[in-house]
Amino acid sequence: MPSTLYRDTAITDARGPNLQVGVSILVRDARIAWIRATGGEEDPGPDVEVVDASGGTAVPGMVDAHSHVTMPGGAHWIERGLDPPEALLRGAEENGRLLTQAGVRWARDVGAPLGVDPVDGRHRALSLGLRDRWRGRSDRPYIRAAGTWVTRAGTLSPGLAAEAEDADALLAHALRQVDDGADLVKLYLDGPDPATAPWSADEVRRVVDACHARDVRVTAHATRFDGTRVCAEAGVDAIEHGFEIDADTAQLMRRRGIVLVSTLTVMRSWRSFATTTALERFTTDEGRARIAARDEAGIASVRACHDAGVAIAAGTDFGGGSPRANAIAWEVEALVDAGLEPWEALAAATWRGGELLGEPEAGVIREGGPADFLLVHGDPLSDPRALWRVWRVAWDS
Ligand SMILES: [Zn+2]
Predict the structure, then answer these.
(1) Are strands 20-28 and 31-37 parallel, antiparallel or unpaired?
(2) In terms of DSSP bridges, do strands 238-241 and 217-222 run parallel, antiparallel, or are they unpaired?
(3) Which of 26, 83, 181, 284 has the fewest beta carbons closer than 10 A?
(4) What is the torsional sign of CA 78, 353, 366, 136?
(5) What's the 4 CA to ligand 1 centre distance in angstroms?
(6) Which segments of 107-164 does DSSP mark as H helices, in order?
Protein backbone atom coordinates (compact mmCIF):
# COMPACT_ATOMS: atom_id res chain seq x y z
CA MET A 1 0.00 0.00 0.00
CA PRO A 2 1.51 3.38 -0.93
CA SER A 3 2.15 5.98 1.76
CA THR A 4 0.34 9.32 1.66
CA LEU A 5 2.02 12.61 2.45
CA TYR A 6 -0.38 15.43 3.36
CA ARG A 7 1.70 18.53 2.72
CA ASP A 8 1.36 22.04 4.13
CA THR A 9 -1.87 21.77 6.10
CA ALA A 10 -2.87 23.47 9.31
CA ILE A 11 -3.60 21.12 12.19
CA THR A 12 -5.50 21.12 15.48
CA ASP A 13 -5.73 18.54 18.24
CA ALA A 14 -8.66 20.46 19.80
CA ARG A 15 -6.72 21.09 23.03
CA GLY A 16 -6.28 24.83 22.61
CA PRO A 17 -7.41 27.87 20.62
CA ASN A 18 -4.59 28.06 18.05
CA LEU A 19 -3.95 26.20 14.82
CA GLN A 20 -0.48 25.09 13.94
CA VAL A 21 0.22 25.95 10.29
CA GLY A 22 2.71 24.64 7.73
CA VAL A 23 2.53 21.01 8.77
CA SER A 24 3.09 17.81 6.81
CA ILE A 25 1.72 14.43 7.89
CA LEU A 26 2.96 11.10 6.55
CA VAL A 27 0.53 8.19 6.64
CA ARG A 28 2.00 4.73 6.23
CA ASP A 29 0.16 1.44 6.78
CA ALA A 30 -2.89 3.33 8.10
CA ARG A 31 -0.85 5.00 10.84
CA ILE A 32 0.66 8.45 11.25
CA ALA A 33 4.37 7.79 10.66
CA TRP A 34 5.34 11.37 11.42
CA ILE A 35 4.14 14.97 11.74
CA ARG A 36 6.73 17.60 10.74
CA ALA A 37 7.00 21.23 9.76
CA THR A 38 6.57 21.30 5.98
CA GLY A 39 10.00 22.96 5.64
CA GLY A 40 11.61 20.12 7.60
CA GLU A 41 10.03 16.98 6.16
CA GLU A 42 11.89 13.72 6.51
CA ASP A 43 12.34 11.47 3.48
CA PRO A 44 8.92 9.84 3.15
CA GLY A 45 10.42 6.80 1.44
CA PRO A 46 9.40 5.27 -1.89
CA ASP A 47 5.90 4.90 -3.30
CA VAL A 48 4.33 8.06 -1.87
CA GLU A 49 1.23 9.89 -2.96
CA VAL A 50 1.66 13.58 -2.17
CA VAL A 51 -1.55 15.45 -1.37
CA ASP A 52 -1.44 19.24 -1.44
CA ALA A 53 -3.42 19.88 1.75
CA SER A 54 -2.96 23.63 1.76
CA GLY A 55 -5.70 25.97 2.90
CA GLY A 56 -7.29 23.45 5.16
CA THR A 57 -7.01 21.95 8.59
CA ALA A 58 -6.31 18.41 9.75
CA VAL A 59 -8.79 17.50 12.49
CA PRO A 60 -8.96 14.35 14.64
CA GLY A 61 -11.56 11.84 13.49
CA MET A 62 -14.75 12.91 15.21
CA VAL A 63 -16.87 11.09 17.77
CA ASP A 64 -20.66 11.34 17.58
CA ALA A 65 -21.34 10.62 21.24
CA HIS A 66 -25.11 10.26 20.87
CA SER A 67 -26.16 8.36 17.82
CA HIS A 68 -28.62 5.68 16.73
CA VAL A 69 -26.92 3.99 13.81
CA THR A 70 -29.79 1.68 12.94
CA MET A 71 -32.36 4.43 12.45
CA PRO A 72 -32.62 6.97 9.64
CA GLY A 73 -33.96 10.17 11.25
CA GLY A 74 -36.22 12.59 9.37
CA ALA A 75 -39.51 14.11 10.47
CA HIS A 76 -41.09 10.65 10.93
CA TRP A 77 -38.20 9.32 13.02
CA ILE A 78 -40.43 7.72 15.68
CA GLU A 79 -42.34 5.57 13.16
CA ARG A 80 -39.11 4.54 11.45
CA GLY A 81 -37.96 2.79 14.62
CA LEU A 82 -40.69 0.19 14.02
CA ASP A 83 -39.55 -0.64 10.48
CA PRO A 84 -38.49 -4.28 9.97
CA PRO A 85 -34.89 -5.20 10.83
CA GLU A 86 -33.97 -5.67 7.17
CA ALA A 87 -34.97 -2.07 6.38
CA LEU A 88 -33.23 -0.70 9.48
CA LEU A 89 -29.98 -2.48 8.68
CA ARG A 90 -30.10 -1.31 5.06
CA GLY A 91 -30.48 2.23 6.35
CA ALA A 92 -27.63 1.67 8.77
CA GLU A 93 -25.28 1.02 5.85
CA GLU A 94 -26.28 4.38 4.42
CA ASN A 95 -25.63 5.96 7.83
CA GLY A 96 -22.20 4.35 7.99
CA ARG A 97 -21.31 5.91 4.65
CA LEU A 98 -22.65 9.31 5.69
CA LEU A 99 -20.78 9.24 9.00
CA THR A 100 -17.51 8.45 7.28
CA GLN A 101 -17.97 11.19 4.71
CA ALA A 102 -18.75 13.64 7.52
CA GLY A 103 -15.50 12.77 9.31
CA VAL A 104 -17.02 10.73 12.14
CA ARG A 105 -14.68 7.86 13.06
CA TRP A 106 -16.52 6.73 16.20
CA ALA A 107 -20.24 6.50 16.85
CA ARG A 108 -21.52 5.88 20.36
CA ASP A 109 -24.85 4.17 19.74
CA VAL A 110 -27.19 4.85 22.64
CA GLY A 111 -30.18 2.74 21.72
CA ALA A 112 -31.34 0.46 18.95
CA PRO A 113 -34.63 -1.35 18.32
CA LEU A 114 -34.87 -4.96 19.44
CA GLY A 115 -35.28 -7.47 16.63
CA VAL A 116 -34.01 -10.62 15.01
CA ASP A 117 -30.82 -9.76 13.15
CA PRO A 118 -31.31 -11.16 9.63
CA VAL A 119 -27.59 -11.95 9.35
CA ASP A 120 -26.71 -13.63 12.65
CA GLY A 121 -30.25 -14.68 13.63
CA ARG A 122 -29.93 -13.36 17.18
CA HIS A 123 -32.76 -11.53 18.93
CA ARG A 124 -31.16 -8.51 20.52
CA ALA A 125 -30.58 -4.83 19.86
CA LEU A 126 -29.88 -4.48 16.15
CA SER A 127 -26.84 -2.26 16.74
CA LEU A 128 -24.81 -5.12 18.23
CA GLY A 129 -24.47 -7.37 15.20
CA LEU A 130 -23.87 -4.33 13.05
CA ARG A 131 -21.04 -3.21 15.36
CA ASP A 132 -19.38 -6.59 15.02
CA ARG A 133 -19.73 -6.70 11.24
CA TRP A 134 -18.33 -3.19 10.75
CA ARG A 135 -15.20 -3.93 12.79
CA GLY A 136 -12.11 -3.48 10.65
CA ARG A 137 -13.83 -1.61 7.82
CA SER A 138 -12.31 1.75 6.97
CA ASP A 139 -15.53 2.92 5.27
CA ARG A 140 -17.57 2.47 8.43
CA PRO A 141 -17.16 4.09 11.85
CA TYR A 142 -16.21 2.17 14.96
CA ILE A 143 -19.35 1.53 16.96
CA ARG A 144 -19.70 1.33 20.72
CA ALA A 145 -23.27 0.31 21.43
CA ALA A 146 -25.63 0.37 24.39
CA GLY A 147 -27.98 -2.34 23.23
CA THR A 148 -31.58 -1.25 23.44
CA TRP A 149 -33.12 1.42 25.65
CA VAL A 150 -34.09 0.22 29.12
CA THR A 151 -37.34 2.01 29.94
CA ARG A 152 -40.22 2.07 32.36
CA ALA A 153 -43.07 0.17 30.70
CA GLY A 154 -45.37 2.51 28.81
CA THR A 155 -42.75 5.07 27.82
CA LEU A 156 -41.74 4.18 24.24
CA SER A 157 -43.55 2.42 21.40
CA PRO A 158 -44.44 -1.17 22.40
CA GLY A 159 -41.94 -3.72 21.09
CA LEU A 160 -39.18 -1.21 20.47
CA ALA A 161 -37.18 -1.38 23.71
CA ALA A 162 -36.71 -3.34 26.96
CA GLU A 163 -39.59 -2.36 29.22
CA ALA A 164 -39.39 -2.76 33.00
CA GLU A 165 -42.42 -2.83 35.27
CA ASP A 166 -40.39 -2.52 38.48
CA ALA A 167 -36.87 -1.97 39.79
CA ASP A 168 -35.95 -5.68 39.71
CA ALA A 169 -36.90 -5.83 36.05
CA LEU A 170 -34.91 -2.64 35.46
CA LEU A 171 -31.78 -4.33 36.76
CA ALA A 172 -32.49 -7.55 34.87
CA HIS A 173 -33.04 -5.74 31.56
CA ALA A 174 -29.88 -3.69 32.04
CA LEU A 175 -27.79 -6.79 32.69
CA ARG A 176 -29.45 -8.54 29.77
CA GLN A 177 -27.98 -5.85 27.50
CA VAL A 178 -24.54 -6.62 28.93
CA ASP A 179 -25.10 -10.34 28.39
CA ASP A 180 -26.12 -9.59 24.80
CA GLY A 181 -22.76 -7.89 24.23
CA ALA A 182 -23.51 -4.22 24.86
CA ASP A 183 -20.53 -1.94 25.48
CA LEU A 184 -22.55 0.34 27.75
CA VAL A 185 -26.07 0.49 29.21
CA LYS A 186 -28.62 3.17 28.44
CA LEU A 187 -31.40 3.87 30.92
CA TYR A 188 -34.39 5.98 30.01
CA LEU A 189 -35.16 8.45 32.78
CA ASP A 190 -38.08 10.14 31.10
CA GLY A 191 -41.07 8.04 32.12
CA PRO A 192 -44.67 7.60 31.08
CA ASP A 193 -45.29 10.80 33.02
CA PRO A 194 -42.61 13.05 31.52
CA ALA A 195 -42.43 15.37 34.52
CA THR A 196 -41.67 12.59 37.03
CA ALA A 197 -38.59 10.38 37.10
CA PRO A 198 -39.66 6.76 36.60
CA TRP A 199 -37.07 5.42 39.08
CA SER A 200 -35.57 6.56 42.37
CA ALA A 201 -31.88 7.36 42.81
CA ASP A 202 -31.47 4.14 44.84
CA GLU A 203 -33.02 2.08 42.05
CA VAL A 204 -30.75 3.65 39.45
CA ARG A 205 -27.70 3.30 41.69
CA ARG A 206 -28.29 -0.43 41.97
CA VAL A 207 -28.04 -0.69 38.17
CA VAL A 208 -24.95 1.51 38.09
CA ASP A 209 -23.19 -0.61 40.71
CA ALA A 210 -24.07 -3.88 38.98
CA CYS A 211 -22.89 -2.61 35.59
CA HIS A 212 -19.71 -1.12 36.99
CA ALA A 213 -18.98 -4.48 38.60
CA ARG A 214 -19.00 -5.85 35.05
CA ASP A 215 -16.85 -2.99 33.75
CA VAL A 216 -19.70 -1.43 31.78
CA ARG A 217 -20.67 2.23 31.98
CA VAL A 218 -24.20 3.46 32.44
CA THR A 219 -25.72 6.44 30.76
CA ALA A 220 -29.18 7.93 31.07
CA HIS A 221 -31.54 9.65 28.73
CA ALA A 222 -32.94 12.54 30.75
CA THR A 223 -34.48 15.58 29.14
CA ARG A 224 -36.40 16.84 32.18
CA PHE A 225 -35.13 18.14 35.48
CA ASP A 226 -36.48 15.39 37.71
CA GLY A 227 -34.85 12.48 35.88
CA THR A 228 -31.60 14.40 35.50
CA ARG A 229 -31.43 15.02 39.23
CA VAL A 230 -32.07 11.36 40.03
CA CYS A 231 -29.28 10.33 37.66
CA ALA A 232 -26.82 12.83 39.08
CA GLU A 233 -27.55 11.58 42.61
CA ALA A 234 -27.29 7.96 41.49
CA GLY A 235 -23.86 8.56 39.94
CA VAL A 236 -24.44 7.50 36.34
CA ASP A 237 -21.48 8.02 34.01
CA ALA A 238 -23.24 10.39 31.63
CA ILE A 239 -26.48 12.22 31.08
CA GLU A 240 -27.86 12.39 27.55
CA HIS A 241 -29.69 15.55 26.39
CA GLY A 242 -30.03 17.16 29.86
CA PHE A 243 -32.19 20.01 28.65
CA GLU A 244 -33.16 21.18 32.17
CA ILE A 245 -29.94 21.24 34.20
CA ASP A 246 -29.64 23.94 36.86
CA ALA A 247 -26.43 25.27 38.40
CA ASP A 248 -26.69 23.07 41.49
CA THR A 249 -27.14 19.87 39.48
CA ALA A 250 -24.28 20.90 37.21
CA GLN A 251 -22.04 21.23 40.30
CA LEU A 252 -23.10 17.78 41.44
CA MET A 253 -22.29 16.39 37.98
CA ARG A 254 -18.83 17.95 38.04
CA ARG A 255 -18.06 16.58 41.50
CA ARG A 256 -19.09 13.10 40.42
CA GLY A 257 -17.39 13.28 37.02
CA ILE A 258 -20.66 12.87 35.14
CA VAL A 259 -20.40 13.87 31.49
CA LEU A 260 -23.11 15.84 29.70
CA VAL A 261 -23.77 14.55 26.19
CA SER A 262 -25.35 17.50 24.44
CA THR A 263 -27.84 17.06 21.60
CA LEU A 264 -28.82 20.62 20.71
CA THR A 265 -28.95 19.58 17.05
CA VAL A 266 -32.34 18.01 17.71
CA MET A 267 -34.04 21.36 18.29
CA ARG A 268 -32.32 22.89 15.28
CA SER A 269 -33.65 20.05 13.21
CA TRP A 270 -37.18 20.51 14.60
CA ARG A 271 -37.03 24.20 13.87
CA SER A 272 -36.24 23.46 10.24
CA PHE A 273 -39.37 21.28 10.05
CA ALA A 274 -41.51 24.39 10.55
CA THR A 275 -40.98 25.15 6.86
CA THR A 276 -40.13 21.73 5.39
CA THR A 277 -43.14 19.76 6.71
CA ALA A 278 -46.86 20.20 7.23
CA LEU A 279 -46.73 18.53 10.65
CA GLU A 280 -48.60 20.67 13.13
CA ARG A 281 -46.33 20.05 16.06
CA PHE A 282 -43.61 21.84 14.12
CA THR A 283 -45.57 24.37 12.09
CA THR A 284 -48.11 25.95 14.41
CA ASP A 285 -47.32 29.00 16.51
CA GLU A 286 -47.73 26.87 19.61
CA GLY A 287 -45.44 24.17 18.27
CA ARG A 288 -42.78 26.65 17.25
CA ALA A 289 -42.94 28.33 20.66
CA ARG A 290 -42.59 24.99 22.46
CA ILE A 291 -39.53 24.06 20.40
CA ALA A 292 -37.96 27.48 20.85
CA ALA A 293 -38.43 27.21 24.62
CA ARG A 294 -36.81 23.77 24.67
CA ASP A 295 -33.93 25.05 22.56
CA GLU A 296 -33.36 27.93 24.97
CA ALA A 297 -33.51 25.60 27.97
CA GLY A 298 -31.04 23.22 26.31
CA ILE A 299 -28.62 26.05 25.62
CA ALA A 300 -28.97 27.32 29.20
CA SER A 301 -28.22 23.80 30.49
CA VAL A 302 -25.06 23.55 28.37
CA ARG A 303 -24.03 26.94 29.73
CA ALA A 304 -24.64 25.82 33.32
CA CYS A 305 -22.56 22.69 32.75
CA HIS A 306 -19.79 24.58 30.99
CA ASP A 307 -19.66 27.18 33.77
CA ALA A 308 -19.47 24.40 36.37
CA GLY A 309 -16.64 22.64 34.54
CA VAL A 310 -18.66 19.57 33.52
CA ALA A 311 -17.09 17.61 30.65
CA ILE A 312 -19.29 17.95 27.56
CA ALA A 313 -19.35 15.46 24.69
CA ALA A 314 -21.16 16.29 21.45
CA GLY A 315 -23.94 14.12 20.07
CA THR A 316 -26.44 14.60 17.30
CA ASP A 317 -29.13 12.06 18.31
CA PHE A 318 -29.37 11.15 14.63
CA GLY A 319 -31.81 8.34 13.97
CA GLY A 320 -33.27 8.18 17.49
CA GLY A 321 -34.12 11.81 16.97
CA SER A 322 -34.85 13.59 13.73
CA PRO A 323 -31.33 14.58 12.57
CA ARG A 324 -29.56 12.64 9.83
CA ALA A 325 -26.24 10.86 10.25
CA ASN A 326 -24.00 13.59 8.83
CA ALA A 327 -24.89 16.37 11.32
CA ILE A 328 -21.97 16.45 13.78
CA ALA A 329 -20.92 19.90 12.51
CA TRP A 330 -24.37 21.16 13.50
CA GLU A 331 -23.76 20.15 17.12
CA VAL A 332 -20.36 21.85 17.20
CA GLU A 333 -21.98 25.02 15.85
CA ALA A 334 -24.69 24.79 18.49
CA LEU A 335 -22.16 24.38 21.30
CA VAL A 336 -20.38 27.52 20.12
CA ASP A 337 -23.71 29.34 20.15
CA ALA A 338 -24.14 28.07 23.73
CA GLY A 339 -20.91 29.76 24.78
CA LEU A 340 -18.13 27.22 24.26
CA GLU A 341 -15.01 28.40 22.47
CA PRO A 342 -14.76 26.77 19.03
CA TRP A 343 -11.84 24.62 20.19
CA GLU A 344 -13.84 23.48 23.22
CA ALA A 345 -16.77 22.58 20.98
CA LEU A 346 -14.42 20.65 18.70
CA ALA A 347 -12.98 18.94 21.79
CA ALA A 348 -16.55 17.87 22.62
CA ALA A 349 -16.80 16.28 19.17
CA THR A 350 -13.41 14.56 19.39
CA TRP A 351 -11.36 13.57 22.45
CA ARG A 352 -14.08 14.29 25.02
CA GLY A 353 -16.18 11.67 23.28
CA GLY A 354 -13.14 9.38 23.26
CA GLU A 355 -12.74 9.79 27.02
CA LEU A 356 -16.42 9.05 27.51
CA LEU A 357 -15.96 5.83 25.56
CA GLY A 358 -12.77 4.96 27.41
CA GLU A 359 -11.04 4.76 24.02
CA PRO A 360 -7.67 6.52 24.17
CA GLU A 361 -7.27 6.59 20.36
CA ALA A 362 -10.70 8.11 19.69
CA GLY A 363 -10.70 11.79 18.76
CA VAL A 364 -6.92 12.01 18.99
CA ILE A 365 -4.37 12.94 16.32
CA ARG A 366 -0.78 12.05 17.18
CA GLU A 367 2.40 10.72 15.70
CA GLY A 368 2.39 6.94 15.90
CA GLY A 369 -1.40 6.80 16.23
CA PRO A 370 -3.92 5.57 13.67
CA ALA A 371 -4.47 7.75 10.60
CA ASP A 372 -7.86 8.72 11.98
CA PHE A 373 -8.00 12.33 10.85
CA LEU A 374 -9.83 14.35 8.26
CA LEU A 375 -9.16 17.49 6.29
CA VAL A 376 -11.61 20.36 6.21
CA HIS A 377 -11.43 23.44 4.05
CA GLY A 378 -11.01 26.41 6.34
CA ASP A 379 -10.37 26.98 10.04
CA PRO A 380 -12.70 25.20 12.47
CA LEU A 381 -11.21 27.11 15.40
CA SER A 382 -12.51 30.43 14.12
CA ASP A 383 -15.51 29.11 12.19
CA PRO A 384 -17.07 25.80 13.27
CA ARG A 385 -18.99 25.68 9.97
CA ALA A 386 -15.71 24.59 8.39
CA LEU A 387 -16.57 21.14 9.76
CA TRP A 388 -19.29 20.86 7.11
CA ARG A 389 -16.52 21.12 4.49
CA VAL A 390 -14.79 17.77 4.90
CA TRP A 391 -12.89 17.11 1.68
CA ARG A 392 -10.78 14.12 2.65
CA VAL A 393 -10.92 11.40 5.27
CA ALA A 394 -7.41 10.01 5.80
CA TRP A 395 -8.52 6.62 7.17
CA ASP A 396 -10.62 5.89 4.09
CA SER A 397 -8.56 7.25 1.21
ZN1 LIG B 1 -31.18 9.44 21.40
Answers:
(1) antiparallel
(2) parallel
(3) 284
(4) negative
(5) 37
(6) 126-134
**pTM for the whole structure:** 0.98
- Helix, coil or strand: residue 27: strand
The pLDDT assigned to 282 comes to 98
Per-residue model confidence as pLDDT tens digits over 163-221: 999 999 999 999 999 999 999 999 999 999 988 999 999 999 999 999 999 999 999 99
CA dihedral defined by 273, 275, 276, 278, rounded to 10 degrees? Answer: 80
CA distances from 8 to 39, 52, 119, 363, 385 (A): 9, 7, 45, 22, 21
- One-letter amino acid of 245: I
What pLDDT does 132 receive? 98
Ligand 1 centroid to residue 343 C-alpha, Å: 25
Cα of 14 vs centre of ligand 1, distance in Å, is 25
Give me the count of residues in the chain. Answer: 397
Q: Can you spell out the DSSP letters for 292-346? A: HHHHHHHHHHHHHHHHHT--EEE---BTTBS--TT-HHHHHHHHHHTT--HHHHH
Q: 141: closest CA among 78, 98, 200?
A: 98
- Asked whether residue 1 carries a pLDDT value surpassing 90, the answer given is no
